[in-house]
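Practice problem 4.
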């Protein structure tokens, strides 16, 4: 009901920034009866990022991995306000968020201020470019739905332009050279998906590109997938070789133009050389960088002055130097990798913490009331009141037993193309490393079960079936 959206002055206002892995996991588990909850995010949906690489080739349609935030919020006990806007500044002293509506439809009010008592920062990260010239202008990223759509369109654009009448052979080779920079899981998964698309569909629909379509993965370090075990790195590299995906390790991109990249290559004899690599599509997947709103918040808090990679938090995810700000996911530094797994566990932990804090507040208020009653009570009533106070004290001890955040690593999984995946999975106290087709089936079932909703699961399963039976759609939107 509309009146439930009104601010209840007796409750604290909890503002949550972002609708990604961290924030949504918090929202899912939070008892919203205890707070005035406000969510601010430029994205009115949750995105299941692990399957985003599959959207670049149309194996999965992007809407199948999106869940509207309104759908998540409407199931909450007490209504939650959602503002589709970007937090442009967090004023730590004044406890105010400055929010800007960036939508295409312009209203009279496009900027506002939202006060908070408690704040959770879950804004994720942006794409790292390390200031390399030309990246933002010419490369595609792979973080959001729009990025995947742009890549999908550009792949087909390259194919159609390469097959245009009288195109020179050099230009055909350039246009059909798909370069992926960054050999982390994002780059590897995308390269695998792209080669699948070529092998399974493009070759059938546009056979004349057979000898010229080529995927290259460029990585500055000596190997790809540094977070996986050595055995799986070797497996991935040999599997890419079989799939005809070229891996160029020890190759650091230094400059990007509209038609080629310039990379510094470290040769086996220790010397270095600069090479120009022409490309038609360039996908940039070199990891995370801080968002400006996070950088700005860090600059307001003296305890954050040595922080570099994000908001430093304590074991309860409280931003160091503050009392009422928490951070989750990729924008927080808690000594874990920036993954969905970590963000989701942090969000769930905060929900437990906030639910507990609210219960604690309620019990403490009751205890204060009982103590006041006790002092004015008759002698025969006092014992009963004292018993009640003792009972509340016991309750309080039980509730306050929440320990610090502890991450439980379930393992790492990545798709590497040609119906193969690699997995480093924790099993009891040990670790199992596996790669191949069985691991691919495990990858599929694991990600299907992890999808946000049954609706998402059904849509993803249908997309897989559709791609298998009818092929991927090669029309350029
Ligand atoms: P996000 O999920 O990125 O969410 C950030 C939210 O904040 C978004 O809703 C965004 O719109 C919002 N936001 C941004 N700026 C503002 C602002 N100024 N104000 C308010 N809101 C803002 N991890 C795994 O564990 N397994 C995987 O298989 C996996 N696959 C991945 C595949 C890809 C292609 C990518 C890009 C990442 C993958 N990851 C995976 C990593 C994982 O997606 C991230 O670690 C995770 O999304 C981090 O969660 P988060 O909540 O911190 O940020
Ligand atoms: P990443 O940070 O894991 O990898 C980026 C890679 O780019 C690094 O290996 C780095 O050496 C390389 N690089 C940086 N600058 C370069 C340059 N100029 N030239 C060439 N190479 C350069 O980034 P990611 O793959 O985007 O992943 C980001 C986070 O998301 C990670 O924590 C990752 O674990 C997580 N993620 C997980 C999965 C999965 O589990 N399947 C999938 C995607 C992302």
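Answer key:
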């Amino acid at each position: 009901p509309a009146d439930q959206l009104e601010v209840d002055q007796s409750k604290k206002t909890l503002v949550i920034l972002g609708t990604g892995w961290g924030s949504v996991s918090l929202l899912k588990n939070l008892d919203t009866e205890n707070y005035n909850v406000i969510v601010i995010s430029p994205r009115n949906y949750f995105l299941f990022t692990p399957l985003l690489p599959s959207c670049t080739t149309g194996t999965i349609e992007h809407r199948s991995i999106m869940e509207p935030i309104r759908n998540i919020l409407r199931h909450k006990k007490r209504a939650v306000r959602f503002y589709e806007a970007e937090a442009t500044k967090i004023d730590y002293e004044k406890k105010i968020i400055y929010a800007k509506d960036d939508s295409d439809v312009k209203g009279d009010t496009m900027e506002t201020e939202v006060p908070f008592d408690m704040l959770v920062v879950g804004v994720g990260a942006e794409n790292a470019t390390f200031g390399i010239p030309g990246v933002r202008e010419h490369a595609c990223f792979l973080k959001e739905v729009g990025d995947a759509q742009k890549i999908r369109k550009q792949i087909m654009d390259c194919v159609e332009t390469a097959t245009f009448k009288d195109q020179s052979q050099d230009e055909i080779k350039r246009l059909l050279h798909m370069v992926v920079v960054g050999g982390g899981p994002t780059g590897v998964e995308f390269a695998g998906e792209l080669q699948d698309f070529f092998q399974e569909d493009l070759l059938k629909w546009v056979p004349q590109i057979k000898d010229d379509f080529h995927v290259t993965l460029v990585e500055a370090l000596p190997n790809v997938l540094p977070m996986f075990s050595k055995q799986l790195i070797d497996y991935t590299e040999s599997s890419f070789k079989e799939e005809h995906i070229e891996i160029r390790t020890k190759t650091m991109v230094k400059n990007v133009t509209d038609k080629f990249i310039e990379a510094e290559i470290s040769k086996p004899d220790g010397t270095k050389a600069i090479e120009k690599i022409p490309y038609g599509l360039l996908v940039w997947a070199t990891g995370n960088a801080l968002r400006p709103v996070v950088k700005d918040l860090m600059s307001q808090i003296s305890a954050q002055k040595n922080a570099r990679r994000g908001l430093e938090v304590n074991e309860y995810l409280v931003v160091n130097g503050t009392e009422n700000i928490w951070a989750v996911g990729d924008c927080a530094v808690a000594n874990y990798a920036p993954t969905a797994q970590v963000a989701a566990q942090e969000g769930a932990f905060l929900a437990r913490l906030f639910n507990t804090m609210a219960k604690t507040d309620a019990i403490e208020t009751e205890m204060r009331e009982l103590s006041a009653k006790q002092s004015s009570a008759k002698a025969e009533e006092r014992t009963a009141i004292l018993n009640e106070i003792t009972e509340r004290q016991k309750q309080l001890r039980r509730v306050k037993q929440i320990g610090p955040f502890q991450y439980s690593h379930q393992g790492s999984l990545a798709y590497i193309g040609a119906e193969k995946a690699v997995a480093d999975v924790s099993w009891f106290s040990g670790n199992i490393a596996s790669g191949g087709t069985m691991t691919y089936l495990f990858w599929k079932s694991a990600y299907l079960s992890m999808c946000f909703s049954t609706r998402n699961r059904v849509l993803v399963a249908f997309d897989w079936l559709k791609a298998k039976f009818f092929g991927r759609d090669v029309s350029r939107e």
